[in-house]
Every structure is written in structure tokens, then in C-alpha cells.
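Retro notes, structure queue

What went well: the backlog is down to a handful. What didn't: a couple of records were mislabeled last round, so from now on we paste the full input next to the output in the thread. Example, using DNA-binding transcriptional ArsR family regulator from Dinghuibacter silviterrae:
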Amino acid sequence: MEMRRDVFQAIADPTRRTIIGMVAAKPQNLNSIAEQFEMSRQAISLHIKILHECGLLKVEPQGRERWCTIQPEKLVEVAEWVEPFRKMWDNRLDLLGNVLKEMKK
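Corresponding output:
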């Protein structure tokens, strides 16, 4: 049975979040990504595979290397899910600010 991967599964892991940040800063090959971690190249390849399967990374061969580039469009799904919570906390902090102002009077 094939597992369906989604963006939430991808960002659930701190290593994958780090890889997303690295590749967002600049496209990188698999070796340069793997060098930044104290884990096997195979483990990094699995993380890259998950990021690729959920659509966050594009992996393209260039000569003998495989280069990863960010596909940020999929992060919109996360941003849309987080937005109501951000608004809720903004409202709560505004209310707290108002209470604190009243206490100073």
C-alpha cells in the first residue's frame, strides 16, 4: 500500500524543516545538504524523498548531482491552516494590552 504524503507530514520533522530552510536560502545538491547533518546520506535521502513526494522540493539531476530547489507554493496550505490561530492570538494579546493599559491608569 502506497503512503500518501502531505505538507504537514513533511514539516512535522525538525530535520525536514531545516532542509526546507536551507534549500529556500539557495538550491543545493544532496551532498551539500547531507554534509550539514550528523546522520547518514541514506537518512537524508529519505527526508529529501518525503519532501519531494509532498511537493515541497523539486529534485532534478544536473550532471552527476541531484539538485534540490524549494517549491514554496505547498506552504500556502500550512499558512492557511495557521491563520485562524494567529488571528485568535493577536486578538487575545490585544485584549491583554488593553487590560494592562487600564491597570496603569
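Agreed that this is the format going forward. Reviewer comment attached to the example: The longest helix spans residues 75-104.
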